[in-house]
Amino acid sequence: MRPSQSGNLPLELNAFVGRESELAELAAALEAGRLVTVTGVGGVGKSRLAVRAAARSRPRDGAWLVDLTALRDPDLLDHAVADALGLTDHTKRPPRQVLLGHLEERQLLLVVDGFEHLVDACAALVRDLLVHSPGLRVLAVGRRPLETEGERLFPLAPLPGPDAAALFSDRAAAGLPGFVVDDGNRADVMELCHRLDGIPLAVELAAGRLRALSPAQLLARLDDRFRLLTGVRRDVLPRHQTLRTAIGWSHELCAPRERLLWSRLSVFAGQFDLEAAEYICAGDGLLADEVLDVLEELLAQSVLYREEGPSGVRYRMLDTVRAYGADWLEAAGEGARLRRRHRDWYMGLATWCELDWFSPRQQEVAALIDAELPNLRAALEFSLTERDEAHLGQYLAGTLWFYWVGCGRLAEGRHWLDRSLELDGGHADSRLKALWVLGYVAVLQGDAVAALAALHECRDGAKRTGNAVAAAYAEHRIGCLALVTDDLPRAETLLRSALERYREIGELNSNVLMGQTELAMVLAFRGELAGAVEVCEDVRRVCEDHGERWTLAYALYVLGYAAWTRGEARTARELLAESLDLDHRFHDLLGTVLSIELLALFTVAEGDPAEAAVLQGAASRIWTSVGLPLFGSAHFGGPHVLCERQAREALGDERYEECVRAGAALGLDAAVARALRGGPGNDRTRHLPHQEGRGGDGLQQGELRPGQRA
Fold it and tell me: Checking phi first, is residue 526 left (phi over 0); if not, alpha (psi -120 to 50) or beta?
């Protein structure tokens, strides 16, 4: 086709799906700068987006596409651009001079696609053209920047889930008439698009397989994605015929050290930081102080993405890119060695975080473990499936107790602890730690039988091996189990004994403070409010000294309970609000739901039974993610029973149940917000008097109070 005066952009032969926000942003970038480079991994849709944006731009002298993907000789670059512009010149003038003369007075957009293998020559040409042609704008498309003056980068991310599914549906229907995404296959299609990282090329290749396979069958075979996702279309670039060649083209463009680091970085699951990459990936051809420079090259070539979050600057690979690197890692015989180094690094990270949990950095530790959870899972999986490594899996699962318990991960913690303890690790101390942590998790889930079995095994093993630390923790958690099963005398005896053991061995951390707080709960439930307050105030002081906030939330819960029981309604709500806020920051579902249950009682006493019922409904939904509601305990459940009784009396059964259903439909953030503000648009604490001698529930003497057994 000979170019026209308005350009040479190809016509679109199928639907352009999604990317409306990216098109708007790219148009704005082209208005703001004369050189914009769209970068991204192979198959992400850079060329299609650039052509669509160019077609919308409508410069006076047209938009022109220069496709450099097939060009190998940089000396022919000027000729290729001139040919794309439709220029013919039979003189002896150099082609660069011909180009400059043609572009000097024109206003046009030049789309330079597929330059990454000619980056130096292309950067020099683009710079020269822009300097001498004031009406020229260049939209470059490649897997890395040109790195020339004035360049604005436009990194292109994969398609989000809904757009990827829409693309899959469109392309599938084209090859399989009548195909639609419906309730029967929607979950499989969404998971398929997620597993393919939303890379349009991968999604289109997968859609092409529907002539032989269903979405569910495609999903089941996706572990071998590079063999599965091959194409038969003849109208696409050779390197886009299969997913392997699309990613492989990027690999070919990498220098040997870059390929080496790419393969080694494939051991990471999810995000990672520079320090981890330097430790795990250095050695045997790559020095630790070289990792940063090589990593920057992989960033430039869109093999890696840079992201910022609560835990700082981090990097990630798309799963498809990681899978390609993993194949090379195994081919090089480095898989087991790198996975072991990966495990060792994250074992060290977990150990440091356990120590740092008892410090002002507690919130940072929670954010870091959140970010590193995929890598910690990979480390656990390696330890529990590799021969002679089970004891390290037990140790790691136990070391993460603060995350399982403190950050709303009871179910996942139980999974890893159960798996680790099914194995004979051969190391008593690692097993004992996993046992008391399993007992702790099971207690909080309301699984008394499993908790008691694990804790008794831990106690007996600690006695047999002389492990004083494990003995203290086992006794502590057996005491905690007695607390939540309403055996208050036994709970007090065991908790006091455990606290004495902690003092003898010099143990002071969040667990020790939690033991004191649990003792205070025992005292409060027995009506010994002064003793409970004294213990919690001591916990509060130590927490302030050490910057501890997680245990502080539970101490504030007990103090709020005591204040309410003494009739100090305003103080009680303020204490519970602070407790709930802290729990929610850590995503501690247990602390959160306990606080909401008590705030529901405060709310009905303040004259809003409907809102109290809503909060009880919200709490019921949270309990499904924690375990046995209120541990099945009469003492912990006392406020709930009292609140429900009062709310039902005020509302009637039908209205009460309606409000409970409304609360159960609330998400966690919405439920916490409702509880913290004391109801929709309300701040009741401004109107609550400080009164002594009258229960904050406003009941007459002799009525059931929080904590009393029915």
Answer: alpha
